[in-house]
Write a structure and sequence with these properties.
The protein is 44% helix and 15% strand. The chain is an alpha/beta fold. Strands 1-2-3-4-5-6-7-8 form an 8-stranded parallel barrel, surrounded by 6 helices. The structure holds phosphoenolpyruvate.
Length: 251
């Protein structure tokens, strides 16, 4: 079901104490002022249990940043979807550009990770987006279509209805260069049309599509005002409670 969501991707930041301060500050601020959207924190895996404890008492939901493509067994260092589900983690990022770039995650691996999550009742927040050279060569539509075809469109309609998408132009991530509201709307509406072509209009209309890439308290309102933008995946600005909550309040 289509939802408004603001999700904070903490990446590999914060110590345990700092993480607890941040999550409790966000929880207090949003509990004082009911948000008009779902609020998700994508914490490092080692902080998920702590964040889930806050989630039990507040409106915050938790997400992992990564999951193993393997179910269980001799895969040292990996964390399975079953483990995340047993900690009541509701969401998990898949295909963030940093995982694609630094950890060589291919669309094929991402498709398997997505299946593992769905089997365990966890909602994948599946990230897609083009790099700068692709945008400059006007290949961004083709790139997005390929990422969807290979990573997600193997799912049947029912499975796909449990996916949240995040359009994150890679040139906008952590760079301070945000996509303009028009650029974001253009791609979000393109994505919705691809979903309609693959499944149907109802599925397309019910899909949540977030924007990510240097979203901040100054630009969030304009970005979220677009018809096909259902919220944001926030990196840098999610590390400060005040900024993150201002973004949440942009709805
Ligand atoms: C991200 O990493 O998902 C992201 C959107 O980062 P930032 O907001 O810092 O650009």
């Amino acid at each position: 079901m289509r939802q408004k969501i603001v999700a904070g991707n903490w990446k590999m930041n914060k110590t345990f104490e700092q993480a607890e301060d941040l999550v409790s500050e966000i929880a207090n601020k949003i509990d004082d002022n009911e948000p008009d959207c779902e609020v998700i924190v994508c914490t490092p895996a080692v902080f998920l249990e702590m964040a889930s404890d806050y989630a039990d008492e507040s409106q915050i939901r938790t997400a992992a940043q990564n999951v193993s493509e393997y179910e269980r067994g001799a895969y040292t260092g990996e964390i399975s979807a079953e483990m995340l589900a047993s900690m009541e983690v509701g969401f998990c990022l898949v295909g963030h550009s940093e995982r694609r770039k630094y950890f060589g995650e291919t669309d094929e691996v991402l498709a398997v990770k997505t299946e593992r999550l769905l089997e365990n009742g966890i909602i994948p927040i599946f990230c897609i987006g083009e790099v700068l050279e692709e945008r400059e060569a006007v290949k961004h539509f083709e790139v997005i279509e390929n990422q969807l075809n290979k990573g997600l469109f193997n799912l049947n309609k029912e499975e796909f209805s449990n996916i949240v998408l995040a359009y994150e132009p890679v040139w906008a991530i952590g760079t301070g260069k945000t996509a303009s509201p028009e650029q974001a709307q253009e791609i979000h509406s393109f994505i919705r049309k691809l979903i309609e072509k693959k499944y149907d209009a109802e599925t397309a209309d019910n899909t949540t599509i977030l924007y990510g890439g240097s979203c901040n308290p100054q630009n969030a309102k304009e970005l979220f005002a677009n018809a096909d933008v259902d919220g944001g995946l926030i990196g840098g600005a999610s590390l400060k409670a005040d900024d993150f909550v201002k973004i949440i309040q942009s709805f």
